[in-house]
Amino acid sequence: MYSVLNITDDITHCGNIGHVVNDFQQICDLAHKYRFDGINIDLSLPNPLSPAECKELLNQMNLKPVAFGFPVKLFDSQKEFEESLPEFQSQARRASEIGCHLTLCYIPPFSNDLNFNDRFIQTSDRLRELKSILEKYDIKIGFEFIGPTETRLNSKYDFIHTIDGTRALIASAGLYGYGGFKFDIHHWQNSGAGVLDIHHMDLEYLLYIELNDGLPGYDIFTIPEFERELPFTTGVTDIENFLKALRKKGYQGPVAVEPWNQGIKNLPLEEALKTVKESLDRCLFFSSK
Fold it and tell me: Among 31, 114, 118, 243, which residue is least crowded by beta carbons within 10 Å?
């Protein structure tokens, strides 16, 4: 397993430490300074460097390009979905040229316009349209399901919020080998899943891991979605057995910390990065034992 710095986006595709940096050179400099192994990249922003120059800079700093955002309007209108496809193709091409072969997609666990059946069929059909792009540029999609019930309490319909639901979507879309998980420990535990679910999961599904710890005083039906702590802070989340299961499974991929924590957000940028990296190093040390 190896460490990932994500400061490209604060609320959507790659996690949240409460700080955002939009300059690619600066992200590389910070990742190198604090000894991260890889970075996420935002290909929706202007970048004066060509893909070849980005790749050279990453090589010079011994950094892996890990993941980029998913620009497809997968859950919007048909018109918006179709209009987003050229941008996805463009970003997939540039990502491939840089050496980045993973994009990360959040699955809303609810819908207010389509019931589960219709949303599932629509999403599966749309994902099937992306397969030629994924194959051409050797891109995989890491899907993040949302486990806690908080975001579904007031919606008209629910949608995928479990491991099995995500696997069913991947199978229905014909994306086995091109679809897997952006696997957040918070969503794993608070969807009711356990170590056995990891044991039964194909290793090919595990594409990207996010670690954090839960708040005390809640159960899986009441725990907040957007308030968390650094790993090994509260003991609410079963981090030890999660990491042991990943190690036993043979996972060797990227790991990020996603604390969703106001205290870390309030820290100066570099102090926040130092704090997050120290926490991530503790997790990776434990996972190597």
Answer: 118
Q: What is the pTM of this model?
A: 0.94
- pLDDT, one tens digit per residue, over 125-138 is 999 999 999 999 99
What DSSP line would sit under 117-132, residue for residue? HHHHHHHHHHHHHHHH
Bridge partners (DSSP) of residue 254 are 2
The count of residues in the chain is 289
Give the residue ranges of DSSP H helices in the chain.
24-33, 51-60, 78-98, 116-137, 163-172, 185-190, 195-199, 239-249, 262-266, 269-288
Total H helices, total E strands in the chain: 10, 10
Angle, helices 51-60 vs 24-33, to 10°: value is 10
In the chain, pLDDT over 70 holds for what percent of residues? Answer: 97
- Structure-token pair, residue 132: 């030629």
Assign 177 to helix, strand or coil. coil
- CB crowding 117-154: b at 16 or more within 10 Å, else e: eebbebbbebbeebeebbeebebbbbbbbbbbbbbbee
